[in-house]
Amino acid sequence: MYKITLPARPKNSDWVDNYRRQEFQRYNNPTKPWVYNCEDNRKVTVAPVAKKLSVLSGKPRDHPLLKSERPACVTILTLVRDAAARLPNAVGTRADISELLKESQYVN
Question: Per the confidence metrics, is the pTM higher than 0.85?
Answer without folding.
Answer: no
